[in-house]
Amino acid sequence: MCRVFLLFLAFSCSLAAQEQPPVTVDVSGQINSVTQGKFNFHSPYSGGNSLPSAGEVASSRVLTLFTKLVLPASTDLEIDIESAGGSGIGNALGLAAFVNLDVVRNPTLGSKPYLARAVLHHSFFRQSEQRRLDVYAGQFSTVDWFDVNAVGSDSHTQFLNWAIDNNAAYDYAADTRGYSRGVLVQWATAKWELRAAEMMMPTVANGLDLAWSGSTRSENFELERHTSLLGANGSITLLSFVNHADMGDYREAIADCAPGAVPNVTLHRHPGSVKYGFGLNLQQTLTHDVRVFARWGWNEGQHESFAYTEANSTVAVGMDVHYLRNFKTGLAVASGGISADHKAYLAAGGMGFLLGDGRLSYGRETAIETYTTYSFPKGISASLDLQFISNPGYNRDRGPVWVPAVRLHWDLPRFQKKRV
User: Fold this and answer.
1) Which of 209, 237, 251, 396 has its CA 20 to 30 A from that of 10?
2) pLDDT tens-digit profile of 39-80?
3) Structural domain count of the chain
4) Residues 284-297, mean pLDDT to the nearest whole number
5) What is the pLDDT of residue 98?
6) Domain carrying residue 52
């Protein structure tokens, strides 16, 4: 994968050398801070990966420095440095629809700055209004381009919940911090967009180390149709993915477990195991100030959830409304489920990388979230957020859970400089 990036870099530089327009440097940044509380909730029992039933407060913060070098010949290079600190309630365990997308799922990583994105981009046919071909190579988040939704995709300005900002059944290739490396190709016309990406997968579930080989890789495909309803913009997007990794088999773990013992899916991992899935993403502007969206997703549930969250099916709907010039309010509902094999594994006391109450009385996990944001001048905004989660960890014996939050966000001033 690194060789592909270097070849693409050499190709883009050779194109850039053919022309001499100005080179532009763009620098900007963001600061996002979320403080969440959780009230006590009903819990007759708990396990090693349960959301704690006692009330608690946790804060997270993400600082991102965006830099982009715009080169001649329709080429640019983006490098982003990020720092993610703080923690989430329950150390981000016990919920498939976790309540804060900013939280790193391994709190031991600390807040040391790290490379988030290093993306080389070249655009072909850029002068054409009817078609465009873009190629991206390097390190980025798979959901920078896939499953993007104008109403529910940004935890810094929209919803906070994992199952609302992303398709919970999209087990997209990512390390613990949410990034991967790969190559993406996107073909766009006035009405259609087709994108495909080959990405690296983590070597273990929720792991930080990435690899690419014949048995460890991820293919991602998406077809988007831009629509117009009564003159208002919208889109319909079809998604599919195929992950290859050293994944465990829930069915094998249960079958191989001695009576009275607890199954362990990590003991039944096989190189090159395949997990595949599909998604649907709808969004529509109703008026100048009102937008709606819906998502549906499914993935095969025999192999363990590996990279994003523990969900095998999901459906979500939501909307946002702008009013009184500086206010925006959003409301969304997401309901997730797991496969029969996944249910049986958790019910027998098995542990996933996020879930494990020691036993299970199954019910679909449902998250309802609403937020209200006020935008101040100079890129500053403040939000009040409230979430309600029923059947946390798909367990009807526990919950419901109420989670209020306060979010502060600042888009740093943009710096731009041109050099000939």
Assistant:
1) 209
2) 999 999 999 999 999 999 999 999 999 999 999 888 999 999
3) 1
4) 96
5) 97
6) 2-419
**b/e for 384-419, b at 16 or more Cβ within 10 A?**
ebebebbbbbbbebbbebebebebebbbbeeeeeee
CATH of the domain at 95: 2.40.160.10
Q: Is residue 120 a contact partner of residue 138, using CB atoms and an 8 Å limit?
A: yes
The answer to whether residue 351 scores a pLDDT higher than 80 is: yes
**Lookup: tokens for 176:** 């613990």
For residue 387, which of 402, 372, 398, 366 has the smallest C-alpha distance? 402
Q: Count other Cβ atoms within 10 Å, centred on residue 37.
A: 15
